[in-house]
Design goal:
This protein has 353 residues and is of the alpha/beta class. The chain has 10 helices and 16 strands.
């Protein structure tokens, strides 16, 4: 197959490229080597891949690669929680406009290949919760006064009592709570609208907390594992916000890439439907403090993480996934255990960013 991978020089994209090219596919990459993610050209680029150093917001970038392409993995974009709302225009431009330009050119050319979008668990907002009295509920945005008082757990919106966090499934209503999350959900809407009109197979993969080699370092847009490892590499104990009890699903990048490749090239093994969203996760939730401790133990046990309280605007307390829909539809289950993945990350060089 001839497959276009946007963001193919980046963290997740480069592993997708490695797996596709290693399987004999003809891979074309679009990447603008954004200085926010790449200060230098990565040293892991492949000689057997066609790299186009251009921007997905330019229509000609798409016109040059879509003819003859069987599939697209759209992974390019601005990621992470960001610094503050001042990042809004950049997020919308890179994520929503870039996606719209590509789909607009696909419409112009009458392209009807398979389209896989790299989405994110952030579209859910707060995760899924159960109240002992009122059953399943979705709490409102946490109040600043509660956070300032160290009350990090969202209460039941009906009775105000404590809640149990449970795994979120793809049929739960989305509730994006920051700019990045809003752009990811809009990308899904655009892609599914294209798929419905053009009878194309569109899949949105909602990545949970991806970690592994080639993560960027020293950038506010990196994932939490990269932020912790950057601190440890500098000989500093990582700081953990809130009380460290925030729950996430940490999934290794090679497993995420395998899921993308399965969606691009494989037949669904179950009764999965085209034009659907899928959680990409390990199925084994852990706390943010668990990740910080595991990395510190692997790098330097003397640099135990420091729980500093506070919080990040737009962050949520608990969100972790049920990945059963993905496993049933594409037959790809995670292969990298958490302890093995963390040990690998602890010794891998981070990408300069």
């Amino acid at each position: 197959m001839r497959i276009v991978v946007t963001g193919g020089a980046g963290f997740i994209g480069s592993f997708v490229v490695d797996q596709l090219a290693g399987a004999g596919h003809d891979v074309v990459v679009i990447d603008n080597l954004d200085p926010a993610a790449h200060r230098v050209t990565p040293d892991y680029l492949r000689d057997d891949v066609d790299y186009r150093w251009t921007d997905i917001r330019h229509p000609d970038a798409w016109r040059d690669v879509l003819p003859g392409a069987d599939a697209v993995a759209h992974l390019a974009g601005k990621v992470g929680l960001g610094v503050d709302f001042g990042d809004c225009v950049d997020y919308v431009s890179n994520n929503d406009v870039g996606t719209a330009v590509g789909l607009g050119v696909a419409h112009e050319l009458g392209w009807r290949g398979r389209y896989v979008l790299g989405s994110s668990m952030v579209v859910y907002g707060e995760g899924r919760y159960r109240c002992a009295t009122h059953g399943e509920v979705r709490p409102a945005r946490r109040l600043v006064e509660s956070l300032e008082g160290g009350n990090y757990e969202p209460p039941c919106p009906v009775c105000g009592e404590s809640l149990e966090a449970i795994a979120i499934t793809e049929d739960v209503a989305c509730d994006p709570r920051n700019v990045y999350a809003a752009t990811k959900l809009h990308q899904e809407h655009l892609a599914f609208a294209f798929g419905a009109e053009h009878r194309s197979d569109v899949t949105a993969l909602r990545f949970h907390n991806v970690y592994g080699p080639r993560m960027p370092q020293l950038t506010p847009y990196a994932g939490v594992a990269s932020i912790f490892l950057s601190a440890l590499a500098a000989g500093v104990a990582p700081n953990v916000f809130e009380d460290g009890g925030q729950t996430r699903d940490f999934v290794h990048v090679t497993d995420v890439a395998a899921s993308v490749c399965a969606a691009l090239t494989g037949a669904m093994t179950g009764d999965g439907t085209s034009n659907a969203s899928f959680n990409v996760a390990s199925g084994e939730p852990r706390t943010v403090l668990d990740m910080a401790k595991a990395l510190a133990d692997a790098v330097d046990p003397a640099l135990a993480p420091t729980v500093v309280g506070g919080w990040r605007e737009g962050d949520v307390r608990h969100v972790f996934a049920s990945p059963e829909r993905l496993w049933d539809a594409f037959g790809c289950r995670p292969t990298v255990p958490f302890d093995v993945g963390v040990a690998q990350l602890a010794t891998a060089p981070l990408r300069v960013a």
